[in-house]
């Protein structure tokens, strides 16, 4: 689904906006691929279908954001595949959390919940922006992301409430994942320009605080707690784990076999 391009005339603001949209697109793109890896391997057929559908939607959302990044740089929609598949790992701006392998079902569900709660906050801020097209796009995607979040929350409650052992495994996953989850709100270069210009209504630190409050409210009835640990950052600046290199090698192999082809 193609959409009209954003319109921002100030060059620094255009660069800052492109950087922010690229970070969102990379998050959606890579998490979609990680979700897709569960196809055929989920705990039941309903979960296979549900997570496969979520994966498809996340990658569709990534494409919409990539289109806007290209438009801000004066490039055409036909370069989306090159932008998505043709960059080296250091040029990706995703949070490290989304590049991590799936591990077990509990880890993947926990990551889905933490990410979609963050996405709810992030899209809510974009929905209040004065930038042409972006608010409408954010509101449209929010309607789809809501069902991703509800699906993940239902599974998280199911895992946390099943047995003491199951709850313990979810808590262990939460302890391990929380530092990188906090990287979802790592500062993206140029945020100051967007906030000063009124193009973004709330800085990342304030968004992170609202997100963490929502996470705590969700976890408390499940007898789960957030560990008191510092954030693990770097993804927004292009510092990634070897997991991203391995993932890109696998997911771009077909495109790299003939970059000029139309798939």
> What percent of residues are in strands?
under 5%
Give the full name of the CATH homologous superfamily.
Ferritin, core subunit, four-helix bundle
Distance between the termini: 16 Å
User: Uncertain runs with pLDDT below 50, 5 residues or more?
Assistant: 1-5
Count structural domains.
1
Query: Could you estimate the helical fraction of the residues in percent?
Result: 55-70%
Count of β-strands: 0
Can you count the helices? 10
Under the CATH scheme, which class? Mainly Alpha
Shape: globular
Largest sheet: none
| Overall pLDDT score | 90
SSE topology string? HHHHHHHHHH
CATH architecture: Up-down Bundle
Class from secondary-structure proportions? mainly alpha
- The CATH topology annotation reads as Ferritin
Rg (CA only):
18 Å
Topology (elements, then pairings):
Layout: H1 11-36, H2 45-72, H3 80-85, H4 105-126, H5 134-162, H6 164-181, H7 191-196, H8 204-219, H9 242-251, H10 253-257
Helix pairs in contact: 1-2, 2-5, 4-5, 4-6, 4-8, 5-6
Polypeptide structure, described:
63% of the residues lie in helices and 0% in strands. The longest helix is centred in the middle third of the chain and has 29 residues, at 134-162. The model is unreliable at 1-5 (pLDDT under 50). The protein contains 10 helices and no strands. The chain is mainly alpha-helical and 263 residues long. It has one domain (11-223, 235-257): Ferritin (Up-down Bundle), CATH 1.20.1260.
């Amino acid at each position: 689904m193609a959409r009209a391009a954003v319109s921002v005339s100030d060059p620094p603001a255009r660069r800052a906006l492109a950087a922010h949209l690229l970070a969102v697109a990379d998050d959606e793109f890579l998490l979609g691929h990680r979700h897709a890896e569960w196809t055929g391997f989920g705990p039941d057929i309903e979960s296979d279908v549900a997570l496969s559908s979520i994966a498809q939607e996340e990658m569709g959302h990534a494409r919409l954001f990539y289109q806007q990044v290209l438009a801000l740089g004066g490039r055409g929609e036909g370069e989306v595949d090159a932008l998505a598949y043709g960059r080296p790992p250091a040029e990706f701006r995703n949070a490290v959390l989304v590049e991590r392998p799936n591990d077990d079902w509990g880890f993947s569900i926990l990551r889905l919940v933490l990410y979609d709660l963050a996405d709810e906050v992030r899209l809510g801020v974009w929905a209040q922006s004065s930038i042409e097209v972006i608010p409408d796009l954010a509101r449209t995607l929010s309607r789809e992301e809501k069902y991703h979040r509800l699906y993940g929350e239902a599974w998280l409650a199911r895992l946390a409430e099943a047995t003491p052992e199951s709850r313990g495994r979810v808590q262990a996953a939460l302890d391990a994942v929380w530092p990188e989850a906090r990287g979802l709100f790592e500062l993206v270069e140029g945020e100051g320009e967007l906030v000063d210009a009124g193009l973004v209504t709330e800085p990342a630190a304030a968004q992170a605080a609202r997100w963490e409050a929502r996470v705590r409210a969700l976890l408390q009835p499940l007898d789960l707690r957030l560990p008191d640990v510092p954030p693990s950052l770097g993804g927004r600046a292009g510092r990634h784990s070897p997991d991203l290199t391995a993932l890109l090698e696998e997911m771009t192999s077909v495109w790299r076999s003939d970059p000029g082809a139309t798939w």
